[in-house]
Amino acid sequence: MSPEQRKKITILMINMFIAIASFGIIVPILPAYLVSINQGGTAAGLMIAIFAGAQLLFSPLGGKWADVYGPRKVIIIGLSLLTVSMLMFYATDSIWILYASRIIGGIGDAFLVPGIFTYVAGITTPSQRAKGTGLVTASMSLGLVIGPGIGGFLADFDLKLPFLVSAFVTFTAVLFSFVMLKEIAPTEESTKQAEEFAKDESMLEQIGRSVKMPYFIPLIITFVMSFGLVAYESVIGMYLTTEYGSTSKDIAMMITATGLISVIVQMFIVDRLVRRFGEVPVLIAFLGLAAFGFVLSLVAGSYATFFGVSLVIFLAMAILRPVLNILISKMAQGEVGFAMGMNTSYMSLGNVLGPLSAGLLFDFNINYPFILGLGLLILTLSIAIAWRSSRAAKALAVLHYEEMKEAVQ
Question: 363, 40 in Cβ contact below 8 A?
């Protein structure tokens, strides 16, 4: 990368670290907070599902605007909405207002995520995209390492203080983006594609059009994988509290450790794995590892064992998510904003159904969400293996070979 590219990536990384750290602050205290207002697994699932539902509905718009107006504006809008969401969460204990705040937060994320990856795609070449995506994703993971530790510490003073601090930190990211993040002009091709394809299209029409795209199967993989993984993530705090009597600090320690693993992997390993083996083989290998982790989680008999198993699962997740982003952005060809908007939409659909299903199942039996996640990961792995022999996957393998040959020369 050139010095100018590194500067832009660094600014984006700092910005994303601030934004995601603000979210990480509230993660470890959310289970205890829900218990304090007499809510259980269903409410925990709804908190995530409502957020993801709003994200699903507005992600196509976020992707379109990123292509047409530029990703900087979209990122600032997203961060501003996340700030409002956290302020609402701090201001009330009404479950219905809390749900409304999650809608606003989901809309904010629907703008933020496509904006991030459209920006990365706009300042990197295809051969640099794995590194750029890995670095930005690592900054997010670092935010999830630092944030929970701060949240666990703040909860000792007041259970709602983390929400106020989260709003302040996210507002800081808004100001930082406004001052430091410079807009990248949409290319003539991306603007033309976005105006032609996304004009007057509803979300359902855009999802219908995505069926014809060469990256449709990776979108399906994103959906099914998100369904299974988020079913696990959405109830892990409630599970630890119920099964092992874990405190907010215990949950913060686990999230911090798994986040640290994610940072290391995304900064130093994702790019090397993709360059060495290609996106599809890496995808299949780590889907298998995640499924193995789910099997182990069903037989974990202590907090320490479950902690270790979680490291395996989050290690796989840390690789799978950026690899899918890289794969889809490479296959998009001229409409990366639309593709990343669709990627967020399919992920959000899984993020809606996963927590809803997991929350309801948790209230019947605390192990059922993990069984659901295992079944869906096995399905995802089967789809990925079958798709490996398709024309689109083979074309991607050829592109990877040419990139590696060019890099050697």
Answer: yes
Give the Å distances, CA to CA, from 398 to 116, 273, 328. 27, 17, 15
Whole-structure pTM value:
0.67
Is 112 in contact with 173 (CB distance < 8 Å)? Answer: no
393 to 13, 121, 273, 319: CA distances (angstroms)? 30, 20, 17, 19
Nearest to 149 by CA among 40, 7, 72, 255: 255
Distance CA 409, CA 406 (A): 5
Distance, CA of 177 to CA of 173 (rounded, Å): 6
Distances (CA, A) of 384 to 72, 167, 275: 33, 39, 19
Query: pLDDT tens digits, residue range 319-346?
Result: 888 888 888 877 776 667 678 778 877 8
pLDDT tens digits for 222-272? Answer: 888 778 777 777 777 778 878 888 777 777 788 778 777 877 887 788 888
Give the number of domains in the chain: 1
Return the closest-CA partner of residue 170 out of 239, 287, 78. Answer: 78
Please report whether residue 191 resides in a domain: no
Domain of 271? 3-180+202-408
Q: Given the structure tokens 């639309």, which residue do they identify?
A: 338
203 phi/psi in degrees, rounded to 5 = -60, -45
Largest Cα separation within the chain, whole Å, is 63
CA distance 31 to 79: 24
Residue type, 327: L
Write the CB contacts of 147 (distance below 8 Å, at least 6 apart in sequence). Answer: 20, 21, 22, 23, 24, 25, 27
CATH number at residue 15: 1.20.1250.20
Backbone angles phi, psi at 245, to 5 degrees: 65, 35
Q: Which two tokens stand for residue 76?
A: 């600032």
